[in-house]
Amino acid sequence: MSETNRLFKFSLPFHVNHHVLRSQTMYVSGVLYALGLWLMIDASIFSRNRNASVVHVTFVDWIPFICSTLGMVVVNSLDKVQLVSASTGGFDTGAISLQWQARIVLFIGFSLLAVGFNGSFLILVLKFLIKGYTENPTIRMGTENVGANVSVMLSCTILWIVSTLEEDNSLSL
């Protein structure tokens, strides 16, 4: 590499392989999603078997996690090329229509992620904090719900960034 094509004055001591980095970050994304799922399962098991209070994890507590999971599926199943494809001009409006459809579906996916996070935070506030259940074993069920949704959001974000990387390690979107 010539001196004029460098960004920094020093070179990296290791060579970053694009495929290895991409697969490792996908594994990290999967681990984050598994952590979020385990947090929800842990809160449910604790609520059913060991919880001594009157507050329990119900289906209402699972709705934000389901919304976050659906948002993650919608966001990461879109073809990213359709979001930035430009029309060739003329009377062909099919490309523009497909681009707007992809953007609307992307908006719905990110909205589902936001609903999931905000819903879990709302459940934490309404079900636990306002009613005065702030002791450690009981409040942990609410914080695990919020942590699960944050974990799914981070997993989705990492997977989105990794899937938009081009072969030359630059972001295409």
From TrEMBL:
<protein>
    <recommendedName>
        <fullName>Vacuolar protein sorting-associated protein 68</fullName>
    </recommendedName>
</protein>
<keyword id="KW-0472">Membrane</keyword>
<dbReference type="Pfam" id="PF05255">
    <property type="entry name" value="UPF0220"/>
</dbReference>
<dbReference type="GO" id="GO:0032511">
    <property type="term" value="P:late endosome to vacuole transport via multivesicular body sorting pathway"/>
</dbReference>
<comment type="similarity">
    <text>Belongs to the UPF0220 family.</text>
</comment>
<feature type="transmembrane region" description="Helical">
    <location>
        <begin position="53"/>
        <end position="75"/>
    </location>
</feature>
<keyword id="KW-1133">Transmembrane helix</keyword>
<feature type="transmembrane region" description="Helical">
    <location>
        <begin position="104"/>
        <end position="126"/>
    </location>
</feature>
<dbReference type="GO" id="GO:0000329">
    <property type="term" value="C:fungal-type vacuole membrane"/>
</dbReference>
<feature type="transmembrane region" description="Helical">
    <location>
        <begin position="146"/>
        <end position="165"/>
    </location>
</feature>
<feature type="transmembrane region" description="Helical">
    <location>
        <begin position="20"/>
        <end position="41"/>
    </location>
</feature>
<dbReference type="GO" id="GO:0034424">
    <property type="term" value="C:Vps55/Vps68 complex"/>
</dbReference>
<keyword id="KW-0812">Transmembrane</keyword>
<dbReference type="InterPro" id="IPR007919">
    <property type="entry name" value="UPF0220"/>
</dbReference>
